[in-house]
Amino acid sequence: MKKKLVIHQTDTIRRKVYNHLREQILRGEYEPHERLFETRISEEIGVSRTPIREALHNLELEGLIECLPKVGYVVKPISEEEVAEICELRGLVEALAARWASEKARDKLVAELQKNIAASEKKLEQGAARAFVELDAQFHEIIARLSGSKRLLELAQTLRHHMLRYRIQSIYATYNVFRAIEGHKGILVAIKNGDKDEIELAIRTHLEQSKKDILRYALKEDENLAARKSSNQSNS
Asked: Fewer C-beta within 10 Å: the chain N or C terminus?
């Protein structure tokens, strides 16, 4: 006879700590190269170090952080190869989602995307670039949801969450928000035209621009980090 699964209270704590830290990393609360101290995190969250240690180990297995000798855990820096891989996969998944959504609920798809773009433009006019992060997520969520496939929706959400770790800071810039909205408009036009090749091209073009914005931000951050290190060495 198979053993019954016993869920202890600590299992819930472990999951909550893991999900909390994962969400903070994905949303950019921890910057690339930033060290993660068990004691500090334990004090901030208000739990013992054991679930923190386990969460950090699992986040390392997931590839969000890495353990460096004599340093400890640090948030993994932006990798051009990883960004390119995620964008390529998103292009495939979201193009398929857009095609299925167009076939199953085209009128609803167009209406919801138009509403989203209008809200995004309003936020941009108000100078609320940070508010676009959620609207950007909703735009892509609409397409994936209306595809009618739960598996496709899960894939799209997972890839978008991983990209959000890189995207979150670069998307705060007003000019990046403007370009992203233009990309959304291009996708909407392609969906209205009903041409699957045009839809795929519009999505890939949009994601390619996102990739460029992310890597531009990453290069700037690396330069800033190098400048800070140089300044610290000069003052010491």
From this structure: N
pLDDT tops 60 at residue 97: yes
pLDDT at position 137 over 70: yes
6, 178, 187, 206: which is closest to 102 by C-alpha?
187
Determine which helix (DSSP H) or strand (DSSP E) holds 224, and give its type and residue range. Answer: helix 196-235
**Residue-by-residue DSSP string for 83-96:** HHHHHHHHHHHHHH
**Residues recorded for the chain:** 236
Residue type, 140: H
The answer to whether 123 touches 131, Cβ cutoff 8 Å, is yes
**Dist. CA 109–CA 101, nearest whole Å:** 7
Rounded to two decimals, what is the model's pTM? 0.73
Return the percent helix, strand and coil in the chain, to nearest 5: 80, 5, 20
CA 137 to chain centre: 9
| CB-based burial label for 68 (10 Å; 0-12, 13-18, 19+) | exposed
- pLDDT band, residue 2 (cuts 50/70/90): very low
CA angle 28, 137, 155 (to 5 degrees): 95
pLDDT in tens, 47-64: 889 999 999 999 988 878
